[in-house]
Amino acid sequence: MHVAIIGNGIAGVTAARTVRKRDPKARITLISGESEHHWSRPALMYIYMGHMRYQDTKPYQDHFWGKNRIDLVRGWVTQIDADGKTLTLDGQRTVQWDKLLIATGSKPNKFGWPGQDLNRVSGMYSLQDMDALEGWTRDIKHGVVVGGGLIGIELAEMLHSRGRHVTMLVREASYWDNALPAEESAMVNDVIKATGIDLRLGAELESIEDDGTGSVGAVQIKDGERLDAQYVGLTAGVRPNIAVTEGSSIETARGILVNDQLQTNHPDIYAAGDCAEIRTPEGQRNTIQAVWYTGRFQGEQAANNMLGDAGDYNAGLWFNSAKFVDLEYQVYGNVPASGAQHTSGLDYVFWKHDNGKHSVRICHKDGAVVGFNLMGVRFRHKVCEQWILEAKPLEYVLKNLRKAAFDPEFSKRHDAAIRAVAKGATP
Amino acid sequence: MSASVHLDALPPQRVGTEPRSLTVFEKVCLALVSFGSLLVFLSLLSPNTLSTYTSYWAAPALTMGTIVLGSLGYIFSAYMGTTPGIKHNGMFFSSMSNRGVWGWMAGVAMTSFYVILYWHSSTLAGAIALVEPISYALSGKHADQWFLYGFLYTVAVVVMGSRMLMKYRHSRYQIIRTLSVMFFQLGFGFLIPNILKALNQPEFYFTYFWPLKPEYLLPWSYGEEQLVTQGAVIVTGLTMGRAMLLWGAMMSVIAVPTLTYFFGKRWYCSWVCGCGGLAETLGDPYRQLSDNSDTAWKVERWMIHSVLLAITVITGLLWINAATGNAILGNASGLYSKTYGFFIGAAFSGVIGVGFYPILGSRVWCRFGCPQAAILGMFQRFFSRFRITTNGGQCISCGNCSTYCEMGIDVRAYAQRGENIVRASCVGCGVCSEVCPRGVLKLENGSFGDRFKNAAKPFAAIADAFRGKS
């Protein structure tokens, strides 16, 4: 059997590894236009910032692929023939396959802003995006980052690390408040400002202006200032990258439509990771799940199903993490964002350190714990997950906070302060 | 109507690929360092000139004093210009920290210093004269090249340790650990040995023992015989008291297994040991240069265990020889230990181990050569409660942990599989946990049996390891 996989990101690579583990005889072809080897996309910023080199971001040493007989093919897939079970590389080479996995990831959103296609305007998603930015860096005195999400703050930090003045235009009233509760969102605002990044909340991009040579020269804020700018980063979210399905009979909507088994309308074609749109997702989960570990889970499930299983994809209990400049963030379970905070029917224990660098939020409902939101504090994934799945009483959790602690040794423990807040909040 | 933003009005942003602009205070500090260094250089060319023209204490104050104060001031100011947190910006753009011109020059300079120190110490007369007042005040003895070396070594640990304290001022583990290595180097690596000299006792280092200091467990250290060597590399030249021998033996036989069982080898390697102390401080800017390939790991295992085997055999032979009245080796025993002293003690631990920091990373000696680390490592791997725990599914495989592991451990390979990291070489510095952006890694002393699959049956695990199954 020949399994072809388009995309060497975490979903595609996990699929390739899973197939190899289960089927020593399968022929596996892993195709990428972006890079020769799998690399860690969340580490993109660290390459630009000089924390690591590209080769340091490769999760597997180069000999891994040959040793596991995973054939790496470099090229862009230009066409998929679903019925003829072939694909075309760079408009020339044809590859035949028995099972196909599409794992092409995301691409940055563009919302039709005037000037969005000027030179020195880009998203920050691929190695090519980063290379382009590297080339422009010398010419950048002031960069404007549009969007208040995870990539936006990373891009702002990247530019700042290279001594570039950065302005962040965030449409919302507070940073990433469509995911974070209000207090935590405010903490990130403070971190951004303390870093020296010019944070503009409630500021929307109106247009990007040409400097007369086809490159960006300025940015106009809606009902606001005009900023001189030599670079504009468009980081207002991502959407599935489904260009590869154009001209094929694979069904798509925003993403590539798949059933619970991650199978497209063609039984031998699967999709996994950011590019997949699940027709009927479990529970309240999104149809498109664009985080690292869901890519890993989906890649594994898709591979198992390509080998003959018919297992449903299950994302398990929601968790995630990020780092906002110096401020670490972890979330486990159900934590409503700012807007839904008071309408969700949940109660909270929220403790924040006076220095604004640590906070713990425990969400509970009817006496049982349902979620944890942590800033500048590390909790143990397994313990949080177990407590939430077993609907542990709040009192139990408060008493056993030490079991969840994952901060480095000698870190100050805040258990007593958290319990004190809880006592004050619940009569 | 358009109002252009005034770039000057934005907050200062200091980190970049261009040289950052310096404050007046920083310029003064750097001027002090240059001034002191220039005087050291001139003193090397013309020994005693400085003390002739100034007062007794002016010579060390104007040279060592200005260098230390200037460095500390600069370090403090530079880090206060950043927010607390991991700031590895530009590490791989920097010539000094990524094997550029400055890195190579620093490597050659440090290597040359060791070569001169071991084999051409007369060249250093001018610098030795500069620390003479300090030596005399401490021990009542004249300074020699070994005092100069000990002094510079300690200064490096204290100054660069202060840098670590600033760099990791957000992390209590790093602060406490760094204070520990500074304390042990300053006290046990410098002051106590010199005070012992003042009391006409042997210059003894309580924090070193066999096999890192083989002479502490060799026959002639025990008897009346005075052994004076030229290089003074492995034999201190003085006979040790019984109490000191007992101390060394106790550390080797009791402290090593016991403390390693409870805390892992870090209790020694990154908290107490002087070599480790230098690596953790002076070596910190170079930790990312340690090779973390599988090949390097293989070389490491062969080399470090070969050195351990060599020193064990040498020690055993020397004791048998001594017990049998020089029957088996004759008078060749000195030659054996001198050869080991030259290749391992001087060439490996000094010239390559420290001199090559800017080329091969900060733990070359500890990783490839140190027999003490080899023993601690075996205990840590099979008979310890220490491990680095990974946090469920949070790993994003970014590679910061593997990149900044000074021992070249591919930490990510374990973290992305959600496996504990139980490796003989891990010195427990904790930097992987610091640089992880997702809170995935935690150094822990947990229970003995749950570290890896066969952990509860260490002898079966050893057998597995020999069969290449783990």
Q: Could you please describe the fold and organization of this structure?
A:
The complex is a heterodimer of chains A (427) and B (470). Chain A has eleven helices and 25 strands. Chain A is α/β, with parallel strands linked by helices. Chain A has three domains: 2-107 and 239-306, 3-Layer(bba) Sandwich (FAD/NAD(P)-binding domain), CATH 3.50.50; 110-236, FAD/NAD(P)-binding domain (3-Layer(bba) Sandwich), CATH 3.50.50.60; 319-425, 2-Layer Sandwich (Enolase-like, domain 1). The termini of chain A are far apart. Chain B has 470 residues and is an all-alpha fold. Chain B has a domain at 384-466: Alpha-Beta Plaits. Chain B has a two-stranded antiparallel sheet with strand order 1-2. At the A-B interface, strand 11, strand 15, helix 7, strand 21 and helix 8 of A face helix 7, helix 17 and strand 2 of B.
List keywords for this structure.
heterodimer, A: alpha/beta, FAD/NAD(P)-binding domain, 3 domains, five-stranded parallel β-sheet, 11 helices, globular, B: mainly alpha, Alpha-Beta Plaits, 57% helix
Secondary-structure blueprint of this entry?
The complex is a heterodimer of chains A (427) and B (470).
Chain A: E1 2-6, H1 10-22, E2 27-32, H2 44-49, H3 63-67, E3 70-74, E4 77-81, E5 86-89, E6 93-96, E7 99-102, E8 106-108, E9 121-122, H4 127-136, E10 142-146, H5 150-161, E11 165-170, H6 182-195, E12 198-201, E13 205-210, E14 216-221, E15 226-228, E16 231-234, E17 238-240, E18 256-258, E19 269-271, E20 276-278, H7 292-306, E21 319-324, E22 327-333, E23 347-352, E24 359-365, E25 368-375, H8 381-389, H9 394-399, H10 401-404, H11 415-425
Parallel strand pairs in A: 1-2, 1-7, 2-3, 7-19, 9-16, 10-11, 10-16, 11-12, 18-20
Antiparallel strand pairs in A: 4-5, 5-6, 8-17, 13-14, 14-15, 21-22, 22-25, 23-24, 24-25
Helix pairs in contact in A: 1-7
Chain B: H1 24-45, H2 49-53, H3 58-80, H4 101-119, H5 125-139, H6 145-167, H7 172-198, H8 219-222, H9 242-263, H10 266-269, H11 274-281, H12 294-323, H13 333-352, H14 357-360, H15 364-368, H16 371-382, E1 386-390, H17 400-403, H18 411-415, H19 431-435, E2 441-445, H20 458-466
